[in-house]
Amino acid sequence: MKRFKELKDGWIKDSLTGLDWGQSSDKTMTFKQALAYCKKLGARLPTSQELMSLIDHSKRRPASMLDMKHDDWYWTGTAVAGYPDGAWCVGFSFGYVVSGNKDIGVYVRPVRKSKGVK
Predict the structure, then answer these.
(1) Which residue, among 21, 117, 30, has the nearest Cα to 69 in the 3D structure?
(2) DSSP β-ladder status, 73-80 and 19-21
(3) What are the residue boundaries of the structural domains of the chain, listed by start?
(4) I need a labelling partner for 74 at 20 to 30 A (CA). Which of 5, 29, 61, 100 fits?
């Protein structure tokens, strides 16, 4: 069975996680802007584990199973423990995970629970 399937609304269904992935943002955003962007789409930021599930360790530049538009950093909704101004970011150039200050500009890949849209 194929893991990823494009849906009619342009989202991509992930049969492994049961999540639908939206398209990558065209521009970078602060964490606050990223939250608003996802909410507007009826979605949310992925957790660090969810976003890391898209890393393909057999590739680099991009190290992703999906087209990320940018082989750069993407926000997760996972806070950095003990650092309220930070959230974890996943980099799809080489598959890195680092903490990022919420005021910097980072790309967004929104996620939602699968709606089962065919």
Answers:
(1) 21
(2) unpaired
(3) 25-108
(4) 5
Residue 74, token pair as written in the block? 């993407």
CATH number of 25-108: 3.10.100.10
* Joined tokens for residue 65: 């199973």
> pLDDT tens, position by position, for the chain (118 residues)?
799 999 999 999 999 999 999 999 999 999 999 999 999 999 999 999 999 999 888 888 878 888 777 889 999 999 999 999 999 999 988 888 999 999 999 999 999 998 755 4
Distance of CA 92 to the CA centre of its chain: 10
Identify the residue whose tokens are 């194929």.
Answer: 2
